[in-house]
Specification:
Blueprint (H helix, E strand, L loop, with lengths): L6 H22 L8 H14 L3 E2 L12 E4 L2 E3 L13 E10 L2 E10 L5 H18 L9 H13 L3 E2 L5 E3 L6 E5 L16 E4 L2 E3 L5 E3 L6 E3 L5 E3 L2 E6 L2 E4 L4
Antiparallel strand pairs: 1-4, 2-4, 3-12, 4-5, 6-10, 7-8, 7-9, 9-14, 10-13, 11-12, 14-15
Helix pairs in contact: 1-2, 3-4
This protein binds 2-amino-4-trifluoromethylsulfanyl-butyric acid and cobalt (II) ion (CO).
């Protein structure tokens, strides 16, 4: 079942999303060679709590960290540890906040110092793919249009589109219906309605699209070791477009 949220509820999801957004802004200063991912995880948890939120990743299906931190070939669900960021890495912070009973979800990938051309291309075009997909969203339009647009954009720029990981509805729960794939066909899928709230999150690779799970049963990495990037906004569907809820 797909939830339809009232304007009052969307206002609260946007407050939740603002904490998520501010957490990203706060974390940028720490993304430097030498910082441990445990420090980043602690700092994000502290920030969200201080803003009156709860880090929704913590204990989600048993996930043992405040946020997900994924480096290079790690696509999603990386866990903070004593590992240090190094010059030339790319790192994704996937941050989820629960505030006044509503979740918000936003991931962003960042370069650590100067990165190579392949990673630069990957970061630039994965962010663009997110906005290309978002532009398709409005009341009355099939969701497949956004999925197809993301896939088309990614493939035009020779990036791999991961099939196993998808976006999702978000609000009362962190993961709700519908699934929001990053591949698909125009004129397919559920018809979007004003008041739906979804997380759109292209996860693209600079190589092959296949992924595998590490032995920790959480971290998902690319099979061929190629780097992956991930950009995600929580958005509300509006009569004539969409509204980003995880921005300013
Ligand atoms: N944004 C992540 C997702 O949509 C949240 C994962 S929470 C975790 O998958 F606990 F599973 F890590
Ligand atoms: Co998500």
């Amino acid at each position: 079942m797909i939830n339809i949220y009232s304007d009052d509820e969307i206002k609260i999801i946007k407050e939740s999303g603002h904490i998520t957004y501010m957490c990203h802004q706060h974390m940028k200063q720490f993304i430097k060679p030498g910082v441990t991912t445990k420090f980043l995880d602690d700092e994000a948890g502290r920030f969200i709590t201080e803003q009156g939120g709860v880090p929704s990743c913590l204990n989600y299906e048993g996930f043992p960290r405040n946020i997900c931190i994924s480096i290079n070939d790690e696509v999603v669900h990386g866990m903070g540890s004593e590992r240090q960021l190094r010059e030339g890495d790319i790192v994704t912070l996937d941050i989820c906040t629960l505030y006044k009973g509503y979740h918000s979800d936003s991931a962003w990938s960042y370069p650590v110092g100067k990165v190579n051309k392949t990673k630069e291309h990957l970061l630039y075009h994965t962010e663009k793919a997110l906005y290309a997909g978002l532009k398709e969203l409005k009341n009355g339009v099939p969701l497949g249009n956004a999925s197809a647009r993301i896939q088309q954009y990614a493939e035009k720029h020779s990036l791999g589109v991961i099939r196993e990981l998808v976006g999702h509805g978000v609000g009362h729960e962190l993961h709700e219906d519908p699934d929001v794939p990053n591949y698909g066909k125009y004129n397919s899928g559920v018809v979007l309605r004003t008041g739906m709230v979804i997380a759109v999150e292209p996860m693209l690779t600079a190589g092959d699209r296949h992924v595998v799970m590490l032995d920790d049963d959480w971290t998902i990495v690319t099979e061929d070791g190629s780097p992956a990037a991930h950009y995600e906004h929580t958005v509300a569907i509006r009569e004539d477009g969409y509204e980003i809820l995880t921005g300013e």
